[in-house]
């Protein structure tokens, strides 16, 4: 949907099959998109539920879906951006699209549980310890988008 938004990138991740349980890479300090470590946290999203809109003003987000399937929607309202007014949709899952999604500061993001049978789990790695004053929030109706869930 739309073009790739300036400041959003996807990074393929390795999944290594091991007889007693597989290993899934998430993030290394040598990976593109790494800008420091402050905190890693996990978030759940129930099937067909939508969380958002949120914009981080300093943090680069690095998101990996470990369980289920999550639809991320990014909206660009930055004045100086070539992609101002655009939406980008990315669906991540460990079984069909195992990648790390990197989102630059200043972009609005919301996400939805895209797996109809289970609660999904995602990890976010941010470069600073979380500070609620660092981000802005909007109600889902404030940015018009059909999540289709």
Write the topology of this structure.
Layout: E1 8-12, E2 15-16, E3 23-24, E4 39-45, E5 50-56, E6 61-67, E7 70-75, E8 87-92, E9 99-103, E10 108-113, E11 120-126, E12 135-137
Antiparallel strand pairs: 1-9, 2-3, 4-11, 5-10, 5-12, 6-9, 6-11, 7-8, 7-10
Description:
The protein is an all-beta fold and 149 residues long. The chain has a single domain, classed as Jelly Rolls. Helix content is 0%, strand content 42%. The chain contains no helices and twelve strands. The protein has strands spanning 8-12, 15-16, 23-24, 39-45, 50-56, 61-67, 70-75, 87-92, 99-103, 108-113, 120-126, 135-137. It has a five-stranded antiparallel beta sheet with strand order 1-9-6-11-4, with no helix packed on it. The protein has a five-stranded antiparallel beta sheet with strand order 8-7-10-5-12, with no helix packed on it. Strands 2-3 form a two-stranded antiparallel ribbon. Strand 2 (15-16) and strand 3 form a beta hairpin. It is globular and about 50 Å long. 27% of the residues are buried. The mean pLDDT is 93.
> CATH architecture, please?
Sandwich
CATH fold-type name: Jelly Rolls
Counted by DSSP, the helix tally is 0
The percentage of residues in β strands lies in: 35-45%
Total strand count, please?
Answer: 12
Query: Cα-atom Rg, whole angstroms?
Result: 15 Å
Number of domains: 1
Q: Please report the distance between the alpha carbons of the first and last residues.
A: 16 Å
Sheet with the most strands?
Answer: 5 strands, antiparallel
Structural class: mainly beta
CATH superfamily: Jelly Rolls
Bin the helical content: under 10%
Low-confidence stretches: none
Run of helices and strands: EEEEEEEEEEEE
Report the top-level CATH class. Mainly Beta
């Amino acid at each position: 949907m739309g073009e790739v938004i300036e400041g959003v990138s996807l990074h393929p991740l390795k999944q290594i099959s091991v007889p007693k349980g597989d290993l899934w890479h998430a993030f290394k300090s040598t990976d593109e998109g790494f800008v420091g470590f402050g905190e890693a946290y996990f978030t759940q999203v129930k099937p067909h539920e939508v969380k958002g809109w949120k914009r981080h003003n300093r943090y680069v987000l690095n998101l990996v879906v470990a369980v289920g399937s999550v639809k991320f929607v990014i909206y660009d309202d930055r004045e100086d951006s070539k992609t101002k007014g655009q939406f980008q949709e990315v669906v991540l899952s460990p079984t069909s699209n195992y990648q790390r999604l990197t989102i630059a500061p200043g972009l609005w993001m919301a996400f939805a549980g895209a797996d109809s049978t289970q609660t999904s789990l995602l990890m976010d790695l941010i470069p600073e310890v979380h500070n609620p004053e660092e981000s802005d929030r909007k109600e889902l109706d404030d940015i018009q988008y059909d999540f289709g869930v």
